[in-house]
Design brief:
binds adenosine monophosphate, Molybdopterin biosynthesis moea protein, domain 2, binds magnesium ion, 6 helices, elongated, Molybdenum Cofactor Biosythetic Enzyme, Chain A, 23 strands, 6-stranded mixed beta sheet, alpha/beta
């Protein structure tokens, strides 16, 4: 299929062609940013034993009846417990145990008095307050009860989840798959950063932009290469990158110029081409297809076109696999408070900045012009305004639809 295709149809088409991905067991230490593939229930109590929440003395509350600063009660110290100790000696009537925060409360004791409310020496403690049973006493399971649902399937794992799961002694978790992606930036004009720029050349900014964007939406970049616009070289690079990659994202060489060779090379290599050209501006030139099990997104080299099609086509595809819904675009309405004086025969995606106000979203165009080769507008872009095909110029005050980028771009 080589005619222009609507964005939504393109996304569906790619979704239908996805192979099946398997959930993955990862070490807890590496699980931040991944999405849980199953509910996790507590395998144990936290704390695992009754423990003291403060430094003081474990006592029997009934032994402190009537105790106050004026009328202290004296108890015999029979043991000392630090955090990490296991309790040995039972507390009997008239007895107390010296105890530190986190130490297990000995049998017989039902409360803990903080040391600031006592005076003590090696043998005896003077208790200067009356305690209730259970006072300053953290029972086993106070925090988490064995069997309780801790984290639901679909949870995006962040530091609090890792803390809670680690408290349960869990070393591994089952998470949704992480798509493995290779990047190929193409163009004979490209030079790597750090080199002196030769006449007619430009720095390869797409590699940085796209590789980072991939990581930001939870994909793993496993390889990135550069190629000049020569068929043999392109074929070699593609043949090297495709096996072992779930996805390949290329930039450059997908339009109609004499050195736009990606489509031709992919066809010669036997790739199944899903479509060439999207019905949006910027970003009309996109080649999408599959070779073996690898889905290939051939994006335009123009940086703004490249980022737009990445966000609208590649990003939603990856998120279907890794479950990172938070990193997807959200469709919202906004009031346009700018002017866009061109009519749109093709559907446009304008780079823009949206702000939430009490009266709803207001949106204005990113600073700079909207041409596809423009890079700087991407600095000032937290959404795309979706202007339908056939629209007249957009006036200030008009209601528009936007695709809002995730919070990290704010
Ligand atoms: P192409 O898609 O190959 O027709 O390239 C369109 C425009 O994007 C040209 O001006 C290229 O020089 C530029 N371009 C292509 N690749 C890159 C890249 N990796 N980084 C920055 N600009 C690029
Ligand atoms: Mg080119």
């Amino acid at each position: 299929m080589k005619q222009r295709i609507e964005l939504e149809a393109a996304c569906e088409l790619v979704a239908d062609k996805l192979k099946s991905f398997s959930n993955e067991t990862v070490k807890l230490v590496n699980s931040s940013g991944r999405v849980l593939a199953e509910d996790v229930r507590a395998p144990m109590h936290q704390p695992p034993f009754d423990r003291s929440p403060l430094d003081g003395f474990a006592v029997r509350a009934e032994d402190t009846t009537g105790a106050s600063t004026e009328t202290p009660v004296s108890l015999k110290i029979v043991s000392k417990l630090y955090a990490g100790d296991s309790p040995v000696k039972k507390i009997g009537p008239g007895e107390a145990a010296r105890i530190m925060t986190g130490a297990p409360i000995p049998e017989g004791a039902d409360s803990v008095i903080r040391q600031e409310r006592t005076d003590w020496n090696d043998e005896e403690v003077e208790i200067k307050a009356t305690l209730k049973p259970g006072q300053n006493y953290a029972p086993a399971g106070e925090d988490i009860k064995q069997g309780e649902l801790l984290c639901e399937k679909g949870t995006l794992l962040r530091s609090p989840h890792l803390g809670v799961l680690a408290s349960m002694g869990l070393e591994e978790v089952l998470v949704l798959p992480e798509p493995e992606v290779s990047v190929l930036t193409t163009g004979s004009e490209l030079q790597e950063v750090g080199q002196e720029l030769k006449p007619g050349k430009i720095y390869n900014s797409n590699n940085y932009m796209i590789s980072t964007r991939l990581k930001e939406c939870g994909a793993k970049v496993i390889n990135s290469q550069v190629a000049v616009d020569e068929k043999d070289i392109l074929r070699d690079r593609l043949a090297e990158l495709i096996p072992g990659s779930d996805f390949l994202v290329t930039t450059g060489g997908v339009s109609v110029g004499e050195k736009d060779l990606i489509l031709e090379v992919l066809e010669e290599m036997g790739a199944e081409i899903f479509f060439w050209k999207l019905a949006i501006k910027p970003g009309t030139p996109v080649v999408c297809g599959r070779l073996d099990d690898t889905i290939i997104f051939g994006l335009s080299g123009n940086p703004a076109a490249c980022i737009t099609t990445f966000d609208l086509l590649v990003r939603p595809t990856l998120i279907k696999i890794n479950g990172l819904e938070k990193e997807n675009l959200r469709k919202e309405k906004a009031i346009f408070i700018d002017d866009f004086n061109k009519s749109s025969s093709t559907r446009r995606m304008l780079r823009a900045w949206v702000v939430r106000t009490e009266k709803g979203n207001i949106v204005k165009l990113s600073k700079g012009n909207q041409r596809p080769g423009v890079l700087k507008t991407t600095l000032d872009c937290n959404c795309f305004i979706d202007i339908p095909a056939g629209s007249p110029p957009v006036e200030s005050g008009a209601e528009v639809e936007i695709f809002r980028l995730p919070e990290i771009y704010n």
